[in-house]
C-alpha cells in the first residue's frame, strides 16, 4: 500500500485528520498527518511563516514515495512540494482545496470565486499579518454537518493563520506536471463555493474528479467515506 501524508488547511493542524488516519491504517496504508509551521504543536511564530516554509515542512516529512493529501489551503504547499520533488510524490489529492493557477497566490484565487463566504468571519490581527476565524461563525462555515464533539474539538484547537503564505504567487513547471493528481469536490461546502471548486477541478482529467455530499470538513463529517475514497484513488 502507500505512504500517505495528510496536510491540513488554514487555522487547522494535524488534529483535524484524527478520524481519517485510523481508517487509512486499517486499509493497509502508512498514514500520518503533520502540523505546518505555526499550526498545532509547531511553535514557529506566525509572523515568520512563509509558503516556502510550508513546502519545506512537507518535504522533510516524506521518507520516500508519498501520496500527499491537501485540504483547502494545503492545495498550494502540496503543489509546490510536488514541483520541488516530483520523484517523491506519487499522487496529489486535493480535498476541497485551492489549486494554483499560473502566477496567482491563494488570495488571488479566492477573489476569483463568485462568492466570498469566508470574509464575514475573518478577524485580522492588529499588525495585519495573520487572521483568525470568528468562533461564533466557524460552525456554520466549516462544520455544519459535523458531530458536536468534533466541532468542540475543532473550536478548541483553531489557531491564527499567517497571511504571507496565502499572498505568495506560484507558477508550477515540469516537476508538478509529471505528478498524477485527483480532486475531491465537496458539494455542500460553505467556505470554498462548490462552483469554484468545479472551476478548479475542470483542469483535471475528468476521471480524477470525485464528489462528496459534504461540508468543508469531510474529515469530521464522513471520515470513513473520505478515507475509502482516498484509498480508491491510490
Structure description:
- The protein is of the alpha/beta class and 234 residues long.
- The chain has ten helices and nine strands.
- Strands 2-1-3-4-8-9 form a six-stranded parallel β-sheet, sandwiched between helices. It has a three-stranded antiparallel β-sheet with strand order 5-6-7.
- α1 (20-26) links the parallel β1 (3-7) and β2 (30-34).
- α1 crosses α10 and α2 packs across α3 (75-84).
- The model has no long low-confidence stretch (mean pLDDT 98).
Task: Give the arrangement of secondary structure elements.
Blueprint: E1 3-7, H1 20-26, E2 30-34, H2 51-61, E3 66-71, H3 75-84, E4 89-95, H4 106-112, E5 122-124, E6 130-133, H5 135-142, H6 148-157, E7 161-162, H7 174-177, E8 181-186, H8 194-201, E9 209-212, H9 218-221, H10 223-233
Parallel strand pairs: 1-2, 1-3, 3-4, 4-8, 8-9
Antiparallel strand pairs: 5-6, 6-7
Domain AB hydrolase-1: 4-228
Keywords: Hydrolase
Protein name: Alpha/beta fold hydrolase
In short:
This protein is an alpha/beta fold.
Q: Main sheet, how many strands, which sense, barrel? A: 6 strands, parallel
Task: Enumerate the strands of the largest sheet in spatial order, edge to edge or round the barrel.
Answer: 2-1-3-4-8-9
Work out the strand percent. 15-25%
CATH class: Alpha Beta
Kindly report the name of the CATH homologous superfamily: Alpha/Beta hydrolase fold, catalytic domain
Rg from Cα: 16 Å
Report low-confidence residues grouped into runs of 5 or more. none
Overall pLDDT, averaged?
Answer: 98
The tally of domains stands at: 1
Care to count the β-strands?
Answer: 9
Shape: globular
Amino acid at each position: 500500500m502507500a505512504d500517505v501524508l495528510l496536510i491540513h488547511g488554514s487555522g487547522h493542524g494535524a488534529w483535524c485528520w484524527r478520524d481519517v488516519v485510523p481508517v487509512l491504517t486499517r486499509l493497509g496504508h502508512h498514514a500520518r498527518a503533520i502540523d505546518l509551521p505555526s499550526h498545532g504543536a509547531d511553535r514557529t511564530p506566525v509572523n515568520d511563516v512563509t509558503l516556502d516554509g510550508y513546502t519545506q515542512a512537507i518535504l522533510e516529512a516524506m521518507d520516500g514515495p508519498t501520496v500527499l493529501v491537501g485540504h483547502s489551503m494545503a492545495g498550494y504547499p502540496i503543489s509546490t512540494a510536488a514541483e520541488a520533488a516530483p520523484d517523491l510524490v506519487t499522487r496529489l489529492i486535493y480535498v476541497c482545496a485551492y489549486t494554483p493557477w499560473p502566477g496567482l497566490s491563494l488570495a488571488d484565487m479566492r477573489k476569483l470565486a463568485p462568492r466570498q463566504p469566508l470574509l464575514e468571519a475573518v478577524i485580522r490581527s492588529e499588525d495585519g499579518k495573520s487572521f483568525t476565524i470568528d468562533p461564533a461563525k466557524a460552525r456554520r462555515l466549516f462544520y455544519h454537518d459535523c458531530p458536536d464533539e468534533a466541532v468542540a474539538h475543532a473550536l478548541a484547537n483553531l489557531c491564527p493563520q499567517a497571511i504571507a503564505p496565502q499572498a505568495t504567487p506560484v507558477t508550477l513547471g515540469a516537476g508538478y506536471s509529471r505528478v498524477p493528481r485527483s480532486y475531491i469536490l465537496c458539494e455542500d461546502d460553505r467556505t470554498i463555493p462548490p462552483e469554484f471548486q468545479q472551476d478548479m477541478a475542470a483542469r483535471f482529467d475528468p476521471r480524477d474528479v470525485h464528489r462528496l455530499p459534504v461540508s468543508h470538513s469531510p474529515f469530521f463529517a464522513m471520515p470513513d467515506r473520505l478515507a475509502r475514497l482516498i484509498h480508491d484513488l491510490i
